Amino acid sequence: MSDTVPNRETIEKAHKLIAPYIHHTPVLTSSFLNDLCEAEIFFKCENLQKIGAFKARGGLNAILTLTEEQLKNGVTTHSSGNHAQAIAFSAAKVGAKAYIVMPDNSPLVKIKAVEGYGGEITFCKNTPEEREHTVQEIIKKTGAAFIHPFNNYAVIAGQATAAKELIEDCQEKLDMIFAPVGGGGLLSGTALSAHYFSPDTKVYAGEPEGAADAVLSFRSDRIEKAPYVKTIADGLLTYLGDKTFPIIKQHITDVLTVSDEEIIQSMRYLWERMKLVVEPSGAVSLAAFIKNKDHFKGRKVGIILTGGNVDLGKLPF
Known about the structure:
- The protein contains 13 helices and 10 strands.
- By secondary structure, the chain is α/β, with parallel strands linked by helices.
- It has 2 domains: 8-53 and 152-314, Rossmann fold, CATH 3.40.50; 56-146, Rossmann fold, CATH 3.40.50.
- The chain has a 6-stranded mixed beta sheet with strand order 1-2-10-7-8-9, sandwiched between helices.
- The termini are far apart.
């Protein structure tokens, strides 16, 4: 796996490598949301991606760049859901065993999906320390190769391909792209794609108020933890990594926070107006844009809808 920040060639290579295994997801528009925001919005629908989330891109790129020798004892990771599915799905594609550590309060829909892809799940308490400890135990026991959910350059290069497609598919130049931020794999990949393929396009992050670490890190210039963690956006609970943070700090314009109410309202717009099943974490980027729409009137905006793995028995509306 690469130990340097992905460059233009790395991202292009990643795109070519994963293309046979992923969907080239559509870019959709909504006249209702355009009118509401007085802007031209282009939605990159990664909720329609394999496994229902953009994470398939990074998981595939990370696994497809491993050697047979590295794959022989299987792969392991820790994740509350979408990255867990991505690694189980990708490992199945190359015939490798996947050992997945999941917090014991992970959404049932995501647990079932990991099992469906053949992943062997070990549950742990939902703290970063417990996740890390449990993965280390598995590595000790099995010799599996560890693929970090976001703090891994091969994963970042894979995630960068979503914004690369968005930029290429929009005939008109985008003024900005909004992406959500948890650990920063997608956001750093998006920032790199904008930097290489559309240098005038600014990148903004949307972050839940109930997991607001990236905004603090961005302001203080060091990796911070959120003062409290309580949000409906269960995919964005983790803090930035030492690989994602420097890329984000260098290449994005700002981090904008949103409340759970604003996330739910945006999710509702996507379901009702665009007929798109988007999970709370996936609606954060739209929520951040709507909240700040007065600053961006008349602009062309790309918004990445990151996933659609929502528990239908627990809808917030």
